[in-house]
Amino acid sequence: MPANRSSTRAPARPGCSQLNRVSRTRSLVGRRPGASATARRVPRQRPPMMRTLPDGPLSVRRLIGPARRAVLPCAPFCAMVPTMVSFFRRKKPPAAAVPATDAAPGARLDIEALAAAFPAAPAAATTTPGAESPAPAGAPAGAAAGSGTGETAGTTDAGSGDAAAPGAPGWRERLRGSGFARSFGGLFSRHPKLDDELLDEIETALLTADVGVAATTQLVDDLRKRMKAREFADANALLAALRGELVALLAPVAVPLQVDAGARPFVLLTVGVNGVGKTTTIGKLARRFKDQGHSLMLAAGDTFRAAAVAQLQAWGERNGVPVVAQGQDADAASVAFDALQAAQARGIDILIADTAGRLHTQQGLMAELGKIRRVLGKLDPAAPHEVLMVIDGTTGQNALSQLRQFHAAVGVTGLVVTKLDGTAKGGVVFALAREFGIPIRYAGIGERPEDLRVFDAQAFVDALLPASLGG
């Protein structure tokens, strides 16, 4: 036995052939067919073209045939390649035609010839570094001066769209997409029959629009009593009754702000939670009072939010109103005190003081508002003459809790409901009117200064509900 072979055989695995049980030293045993002993691959049978043929002048030609010309592989694809390459090749722009001149190639053209050959391009508008761009039509005074002050978002005076139409059409245009209007859109057309099912649908729509449980219950109970008394002839009469109930609920609180001419200055303190639009509302109020002929002064009391002072200063520059500020992280009470002193010294008619937004659940921050009120009372016992709370119309029933806490801290005397032109449901206005009875001074239905409207109960209800079933 060779030395490199083991005398011990490997154990056979079940399922294998008998070839694994013997030695493979013998040739052609256990190998694949066609394999030689040297492991060189030799075909079993040569192809017909490679077989040895008898010698003869035409023996090979009989099988192979005459010589042929070389043929390109896949000729159609090769013909398409130049077309594809030319398609994806970037085309050069056509060269501008150079006007021909009669001058010799080596001659130099004079100025008149060059001017005729190359017409002048439109002159670009050049501005000097100190010049101001003209303000667009409809922009308030000072809009151009404030255009480069780097104010924050939300301080653009022109807004992103046109102002709403004056009167009731403007209210209807801006509030037709509110949740209240959508809830009552096809309610009466779907339920033209006077029954309890119609009242249930009205109750669901009022609750969905954030009118509140108490106000909704009162409205539906009154309508049910009148329907059982057969006061309504059809659904159109029920709609008119519902409109009358809503107007009667808002009429006592639709009281405009009256500036006391005897109080110089008339101090107006704005409060509210974060992000409701207090600073923007102050800028719009400044524009309104300025157009009415009042002299104004603003106090930048929001010293906590970043860029709040700069935002109010931008509004002041636009409206031509002085702003008293002390910078970031200053004491808000001291800012209000300095502003009241300056307003008294200059004989200003109206002083509007801004405050930082704060959550109504933070007792320490709410106590700071009481401090501002006490500091203003040292210079004028009647100040502030108006405490205006700004409420976001999209807040919902949480606005009731906010007003309750702010009213306990500083004694709110007026409300401004903003952002009613978007996806706000609008029903919170009815809940506020029934719960507190505090006058609603203004309503914001857009981004432009003209869109801060004096609250009108009749126009508000007309915008939310149609006058008739076919309206």
UniProtKB/TrEMBL annotation:
Q: What is its EC number?
A: 3.6.5.4
Could you tell me the keywords of this UniProt record? Cell membrane, Cytoplasm, GTP-binding, Hydrolase, Membrane, Nucleotide-binding, Receptor
Q: Where in the cell is it found?
A: Cell membrane; Cytoplasm
Q: Which reaction does it catalyse?
A: GTP + H2O = GDP + phosphate + H(+)
Q: How does it sit in the membrane?
A: Peripheral membrane protein
Q: Where is the composition biased (Low complexity)?
A: 125-144, 152-170
Predominantly, its location class is: membrane
Stretches assigned to the SRP54-type proteins GTP-binding domain: 439-452
Q: Which residues cross the membrane?
A: none
Residue ranges, compositional bias (Polar residues)? 17-26
Name the positions where GTP binds: 272-279, 354-358, 418-421
SUPFAM superfamilies with a match to the protein in the record: Domain of the SRP/SRP receptor G-proteins (SSF47364), P-loop containing nucleoside triphosphate hydrolases (SSF52540)
Q: Region entry Disordered: which residue ranges?
A: 1-42, 125-172
Taken from the record, one Pfam family name reads SRP54
Q: Which family does it belong to?
A: Belongs to the GTP-binding SRP family. FtsY subfamily.
Q: Give the quaternary structure.
A: Part of the signal recognition particle protein translocation system, which is composed of SRP and FtsY. SRP is a ribonucleoprotein composed of Ffh and a 4.5S RNA molecule.
Task: Tell me the protein's name.
Answer: Signal recognition particle receptor FtsY
Please report the organism this UniProt entry assigns to the protein.
Answer: Cognatiluteimonas sedimenti
